[in-house]
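Q: Hi! New to this. If I give you a protein sequence and the SMILES for zinc ion, can you show me the bound structure?
A: Yes, paste them in.
Q: Okay, here:
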Amino acid sequence: MRANNRWLASDSIRCPGCRLHTDLCVCALLVPRPTRTRVVLVTHVRELSKPTNTGRLALACIEGARLVERGHRDGGLASIACEPDSQPLLLYPVPGAIPLDAWKTAQPAAADRVTLVVPDGTWRQTKRVRYRIPGLAHLPSVCLPTGLPSLFRLRHAGSSQRLATLEAIAHALRILDEPEIAERLMHIFQVVVDRSLWSNGRLTAAEVTGGIPAGASQDGPRNTAEQKLRAGQAPAAALREQ
Ligand SMILES: [Zn+2]
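A: Thanks. Here is the predicted structure of the protein with zinc ion bound:
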């Protein structure tokens, strides 16, 4: 009955950094690394708290990467500020978007000073980003090569070729930047996906990239729930129907 207990799956036992259950936390891997490419993530505010959001993980691994939040009820409009010497590009597969590798071939000098603006959220949310953020509609749009398979099995994206935000950033940096940063991002992504699938009983421990931390439970950090219950911080129902 492990997955049926909603409290055990609640935010209170998730790491605030990586949003995994605290006993599966990957924050130790989230070390910012320098890149030539400046990354700006434009994230819908409802997306930020989702455990399945991968944009935040990429943000934590790229030195100087920026988060621009959109979708706040107060209606305040964010804007994207780019350095004067930078070439802004919108990474999104709109009709007419140029494949990024072809863009780089045509603009080799500019490829070293790109500000890559990456919409993050559901496909429905991100479709409107260009028209919601001042200045984005006029940016050159680039897309990734077709046929890149997604490893993301936590969220139904509707197509195995619809990439998670972290995957899209990694593939873009593989083209624009050093391959090592792309490989590192993909490794972290694989660890996160595997640990989550193990937690759901969809992978064995032996199949998990990098293994499972000692003491981790597929039922989530139940001990934490027990401790909170003893401290009077958790509803008694949290520990019923295990
Ligand atoms: Zn964490």
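A: Residues 1-9, 230-242 have pLDDT under 50 and may be disordered. Let me know if you'd like me to explain how to read the tokens.
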